[in-house]
């Protein structure tokens, strides 16, 4: 049987310089205890952390964000030389661990969106305008009230709960023709600008005037058919019927009655109701238009051009989904603004003639229709009365300023209580399907 070897004695008898193993130096020992070098930026934690997310904070798996809330997946001190780094016995490069973290269901937002608490809101929607880019809602609540949570849509959709975002484009909006706002007339470079009024100032203008007085009346009126006020019954709806009646839309300076009143010096300013209504709607109108101002001595006439936009009735002019101009080669020419305006004007003309009761019962004005000539016009005149009204626009007694306006009335009806005649203006509201364009 082999004799037991005294290893302690054997080690003690070995020379000091012929030993084996790592040399003991002061660089890798602390009070005689070996240790591994480390970085002061590393935090003391668990030896193995299986709960940290392997992706970056933006969820795109790109470059990892090293901030104070992020911990590296590598072992602390791995960036330095490890003293006791023994080679692995097996290749562990293909080894992976299944994450045991709970993945909660999250709403998927637009590409490039950042969803953070707060919301600056504002008219442009967060910090992402309609030009695109990343929409970021930061913490705070300025320029749009308080915001619940920031918005989404990286193309300028909702920028924050505190305010509206940019325009959200729909399917093939890029392929739709743009809304062209061509000028109604060509501005010449030699024209001199006398006054410029912005829309904000124009919308606040107001002038208190007294009740107008009737100067004279022309034409005749039929009574209104009250059956059109009732709700239509199924299979008994009254369809629009084309009725040939002579109607006129004469400009101010060509009106023989206004010319006669101007010679009598009845007022200093003359206009029609359609021209004044267009001027009053200037802050809200979208389509281009112009008014011709003619001055003769101390008289001013507000005129319109022949076949101008003032003669047409627009459709959804200032709506959110206004009609678009038809693109070249497009077959959809029905819903373009010019076609809709022509249709609406045709409807208004025929509807006003259809809702009156033509017969012997009519109301004649003191004077006949000033524009109707029986020898030239083949169609009978329409039910129309022209009332010339005068308004006092004077701001002081030293400079009297009066306005005479030609107004139009379409029908008359009896008051249900007093039995007196009441004048009516009949209009038809035409709409179109914005989804069809």
From TrEMBL:
The keyword Cytoplasm applies. The lineage of its organism: Eukaryota, Fungi, Dikarya, Ascomycota, Pezizomycotina. One of its GO terms (cellular component) is eukaryotic translation initiation factor 3 complex. Pfam families: eIF-3_zeta. Transmembrane segments: none annotated. This is Eukaryotic translation initiation factor 3 subunit D. Keywords: Cytoplasm, Initiation factor, Protein biosynthesis, RNA-binding. InterPro entries: eIF3d. GO terms for molecular function: RNA binding; translation initiation factor activity. Residues 112-168 are annotated as: Disordered. Residues 141-164 have a biased composition (Gly residues). It comes from Verticillium longisporum (Verticillium dahliae var. longisporum).
